[in-house]
């Protein structure tokens, strides 16, 4: 089961129909990606809920009624992992989007990973 893929699909579907928040199953990776998107301004707020903290509630961000996330694509899947070195990281929509990379130093976007000279697993592309 691809929990990150389900989380990202729920995120884009909730934004397309104009929902204010969405609920996703909790996992450490889902929470890390959601917090990373919050630092980039693509998500408004992230919090855990439930007795065992088994739900992740994400408040979506909009700008003048338009969603901040217009599209996304999962790059690395459980059956086909994609890794890239610092010099092999692809560009997303000529720099308009961002690629989320899981590095040994935590989650980074493509620009930061290139400038710091680190590579890792290409998780997803968001524009």
Description:
The chain has 127 residues and is of the alpha+beta class. The chain folds into two domains: 3-67, 2-Layer Sandwich (Ribosomal Protein S8, Chain: A, domain 1); 72-126, Dna Ligase, domain 1 (2-Layer Sandwich), CATH 3.30.1490. It has three helices and ten strands. It has helices at 3-16, 28-39, 110-116; strands spanning 21-25, 43-49, 55-60, 62-63, 66-67, 72-74, 83-84, 98-103, 106-109, 120-126. The strands form three sheets. Strands 6, 7, 8, 9 and 10 form a five-stranded antiparallel beta sheet that branches. A three-stranded antiparallel beta sheet has the order 1-3-2, with helices on one face. The radius of gyration is 14 Å and the shape is globular. 24% of the residues are buried.
List the helices and strands and how they pair.
Layout: H1 3-16, E1 21-25, H2 28-39, E2 43-49, E3 55-60, E4 62-63, E5 66-67, E6 72-74, E7 83-84, E8 98-103, E9 106-109, H3 110-116, E10 120-126
Q: Work out the number of β strands.
A: 10
Instruction: Report the β-strand fraction as a percent range.
Output: 25-35%
The percent range for helix content is 25-40%
- How many angstroms does the end-to-end distance come to? 25 Å
Q: Give the overall average pLDDT.
A: 94
Largest beta-sheet characterization: 5 strands, antiparallel
Q: What radius of gyration results from the CA coordinates?
A: 14 Å
Poorly predicted regions are: none
- Large-scale geometry: globular
How many individual domains?
A: 2
CATH topology of the largest domain: Ribosomal Protein S8, Chain: A, domain 1
Give helix and strand order, one letter per element, not per position: HEHEEEEEEEEHE
CATH architecture of the largest domain: 2-Layer Sandwich
- CATH class assignment of the largest domain: Alpha Beta
DSSP helix count?
Answer: 3
Which structural class fits the helix and strand makeup?
alpha+beta
């Amino acid at each position: 089961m691809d929990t990150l893929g389900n989380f990202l699909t729920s995120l884009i579907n909730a934004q397309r129909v104009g929902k204010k928040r969405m609920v996703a199953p909790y996992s450490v990776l889902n929470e890390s990606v959601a917090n990373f998107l919050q630092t980039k301004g693509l998500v408004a707020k992230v919090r855990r809920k439930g007795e065992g903290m088994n739900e992740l509630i994400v408040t979506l961000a909009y700008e003048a009624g338009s969603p901040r996330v217009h599209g996304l694509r999962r790059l690395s899947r459980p059956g086909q992992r994609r890794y890239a070195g610092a010099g092999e990281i692809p560009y997303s929509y000529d720099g308009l989007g961002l690629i989320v990379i899981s590095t040994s130093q935590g989650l980074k976007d493509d620009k930061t990973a290139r400038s710091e000279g680190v590579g890792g697993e290409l998780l997803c592309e968001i524009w």
